[in-house]
Specification:
CATH superfamily: Spore Coat Polysaccharide Biosynthesis Protein SpsA, Chain A
Radius of gyration: 19 Å
Distance between the termini: 67 Å
Low-confidence stretches: 284-288
CATH class: Alpha Beta
Largest sheet: 7 strands, mixed
Number of helices: 11
Number of domains: 1
Structural class: alpha/beta
Order of helices and strands: EHEHEHEEEHEHHHEHHEHH
Oligomer: single chain
Mean pLDDT: 87
Strand order of the largest sheet: 3-2-1-4-7-6-8
CATH architecture: Alpha-Beta Complex
Helix content: 25-40%
Shape: globular
């Protein structure tokens, strides 16, 4: 059976995705025989698709673009003001979208950066319905499973046995969770996956998905020494953060490698300062009220 590397992007994530993909190639993370698939809808324009094909060709790659929108329900559990789009739910329908000859799919969020190779993801022996990294978040475990806790994984990196998902009709299960357990869903499709796959997931090394919760929970020296995939999982991303950190500095290097110019972080300062000043002013008015 064949393996696939799957992404889900729209025009808003076009530039960050290119930086991420370059880092995957630079670290030799995707085996040469692995097929690339981009899940999308009309929010990824034809112009962007053409540009990405040219971009992939520069690495000797070719991707298939699959429109996932016909499978997505209209009433998704997304609240007004959330920083995600319907594209984040596309991973739930991978088994219905990918060709029948794909046996293993590795799904990767677009807001990441590879620091070390993760090629072993593509031959991960799967004994459960998904392999993922622990979220390192007891609060989310208690939120979903009560005061005795449970398990909770981060859905930005998934190794999926596609045919098993298809045979067990997992897409129907995900739709059922969204329809019947909406009040439990806070973190979108990640919660859907955790509810539907409770006790049926196996752990990847946490270094394959170093998200905000990970580097809050572990010593930064340990994270620097072992991190393979850095996941900018919060609302503050390297491309909208006015200050560079250890993680954004690595992303800046990736940006320069792709676009052959430094990332202009200074351009983000004035909007950030105006926003901060406005917040302080509002706070002062409230305290005087």
């Amino acid at each position: 059976m064949k393996t696939a590397c799957v992404f889900s992007i729209d025009d808003a994530y076009l530039m960050p995705f290119q930086v991420f993909f370059h880092s995957l190639e630079a670290t030799k993370s995707i085996p040469s025989a692995t097929q690339l698939y981009i899940l999308h809808d009309k929010s990824l324009s034809g112009q962007s698709i053409n540009g990405l094909q040219t971009f992939f060709a520069g690495y000797g790659r070719k991707a298939s673009f699959l429109d996932a929108s016909p499978l997505i329900p209209e009433d998704l559990p997304i609240r007004e003001g959330d920083h995600v789009s319907p594209a984040t739910f596309y991973r739930l329908f991978i088994a219905e979208i990918l060709p029948s000859d794909i046996g293993l799919a590795v799904y990767l969020d677009a807001d990441m950066l590879a620091l070390r190779s993760v090629a072993t993801l593509f031959n991960e022996p799967l004994t459960e319905l998904v392999a993922a990294a622990d979220h390192c978040s007891p609060a989310n475990e208690i939120r979903l499973w009560g005061e005795r806790g449970g398990s909770y994984f981060q859905a930005g990196v998934l190794a999926i046995p596609v045919q098993r998902w298809r045979h067990q009709r997992m897409a129907e299960r995900f739709l059922e969770v969204m329809a019947t357990q909406r009040e439990r869903i806070q973190w979108w499709d990640q919660d859907v996956l955790n509810i539907a796959l409770c006790n049926h997931w196996q752990r990847l090394p946490v270094w394959f998905n170093v998200c905000e919760a990970t580097h809050r929970a572990l010593p930064i020296a340990q994270v620097k020494r072992h991190a393979a995939l850095v996941h900018y999982s919060g609302s503050s991303k390297p491309w909208n953060a006015p200050r560079a950190s250890w993680f954004t500095a690595h992303w800046d290097c990736g940006y320069e490698a792709v676009f052959h110019r430094p990332f202009n972080r200074r351009a983000l300062w004035w909007p950030w300062l105006r926003s901060a000043a406005r917040s302080r002013l509002i706070g002062q008015r409230k305290s005087c009220g």
